Amino acid sequence: MSNFEQLSKIANQMVLKGKGVLAADESTGTCTKRLDSINVESTYESRNEYRDMLLTTPGLEEYISGVIMYDETLRQSTTCNDQISFPKYLESKGIIPGIKVDTGAKVLSGFEDEKITEGLDGLRDRLSEYYDIGARFAKWRAVITIGNNIPSDACILSNAHALARYASLCQEANIVPIVEPEVLMDGNHSIDACYEVSKRTLNTVFEQLMMHHVALEGIVLKPNMIISALNCENQADIEKVAKMTFDCLLENVPSEVPGIAFLSGGQSSDLATAHLNEINKTYDEKLPWNITYSYGRALQADALSAWNGSDRAEGQKALLLRAKNNSLATFGKAEGAISI
Known about the structure:
The chain has twelve helices and ten strands. By secondary structure, it is of the alpha/beta class. α9 crosses α10. The radius of gyration is 19 Å and the shape is globular. The N and C termini lie far apart (48 Å).
């Protein structure tokens, strides 16, 4: 099988109808904050135990196609007697192992209110190692902030360029790149402002991807939904979010892309599911790509609380329920969609 065919096959598997990607790629610092919230000390062992609780959930493969891991997690193993490496365990369940490869968003020099994601130095060698460990897809997150006179063209172009270089290196290494340009929910901007900035960002990202000869058939796009900012006085309802998200994606995402796996971006677990459900329920027949989910906190939050450091069964039950609800949302059949 050629490199192109392999990339396309994996990308399509990642966005299969009814399945989504679990984002479990929190850095050690972020994972520590999660564990602090339930009064569990963050150690190598406790982080391993938490990841093990999530990844060994019975039946998870019914709703999850892939798992994005952090470097530490990719190198860890199940805590059972067999101690199988997480990549091998996931592969045995038909779940594709993935890895976060960026090194975080830093201040963009010359633009103190904006960020650039770093991590390109040495990436080719890291990707080769990650492939050998078992990763078959990767993730790179760019963050775009809406504020006074921002985002600048320089910020959008710099991040789009980095995403394209990352994606090209991934495909060279037989790894499917998740391309994640996130327009942040932070602030008080309107849904219209989110639409315009997301449009600018997506246009620039795809210009750069094509300029760098990235095969669009072998990527997965992980964008934000078009949504009101967290502190916006007028919160758009679910129907408007669905319509504007559909319109923005249809106008700016080439049909060659196999699928779109939304980030939750700070939405509540229920709201992220409700928006995904409405998009698929209303526009499924008009979508040129599969639309699914790649949620972190919106999949993990209930499980973290239910686990509470020791109750594996309850934590896994909560994760499975949330994953099932989002799976149903990819068909537009999630129950209990909420209104705001």
